[in-house]
Amino acid sequence: MRVIGIDPGLRNLGWGVIEMEGTRLRHVANGTIHTAGDDLSRRLLHLFQGLSDVIASHAPEAAAVEQTFVNKDAVATLKLGQARGIALLAPAQAGLEVGEYAPNAVKKTVVGVGHADKKQVQHMVRHQLPAVVFDSPDAADALAIAICHALHLQSAHRISAAQLSRAASGNGRVQRMRS
Fold first, then answer.
1. Neighbours of 154 (CB within 10 A)
2. Cα(first)–Cα(last) distance of the chain, in Å?
3. How many whole angstroms separate alpha carbon 41 and alpha carbon 13?
4. 138 is catalytic
5. What phi-psi label fits residue 112: left (phi over 0), alpha (psi between -120 and 50 degrees) or beta?
6. Rounded to whole angstroms, how far apart are CA atoms 31 and 54?
7. How many angstroms from the chain centroid is the CA of residue 29?
8. Which residue has the higher pLDDT, 112 or 174?
């Protein structure tokens, strides 16, 4: 399964693509989409086009976006929310299901501690994706988001398979008892 993680930002939007085969994770690509200037609509358009291009070129099967935390600066939070909207829209337009994770959930999944610092997150991403080179700290965060989503999807598949197996074996017992 190929997963893209997205770390939304208005000036720097990080993205990272990984593949999960069984329990093995493999780095595919990562990068950062940079914007500049004062025209918000142009910056959002640049983010959307750039992220759409990344999705088209790397063909992920699933996407995950980090949830926005609320700053003391309401204007900055609102602008980040608009960039997050682009981060949700581009994969949705490509037909992908989009998972959303709080920053602490990503850290807890990748590092084991919900309040880990950026260096700890980067260390664990390097540990799980050997020889990876980050385009930026935002791209490293995006890879952590992708890892988090891949592991959550894997767990969900295992739970679903176990439930189906139990249901099937339970149905067999009921039928044998009726016979």
1. 14
2. 43
3. 15
4. yes
5. left
6. 9
7. 13
8. 112
63, two tokens: 């996407």
Closest listed residue to residue 93, CA positions, set 148, 36, 54, 149: 54
Active site residue 141: no
What DSSP state is assigned to residue 34? Answer: E
Q: Is 7 a catalytic residue?
A: yes
Confidence tier at 130 by pLDDT (50, 70, 90)? very high
Q: Which residues pair with 14 in a beta bridge?
A: 7, 32
| Catalytic choice (7, 21, 53, 141) | 7
Identify how many contiguous H helices and E strands the chain contains and give both numbers. Answer: 5, 5
The neighbouring-strand residues paired with 12 are 34
**C-alpha to C-alpha distance for 54 and 96, rounded to whole angstroms:** 13
49: CB partners within 8 A, 6+ apart: none
Q: What are phi and psi of 21, to 5 degrees?
A: -120, 110
Active-site residue identified among 66, 73, 100, 141: 66
pTM of the model: 0.87
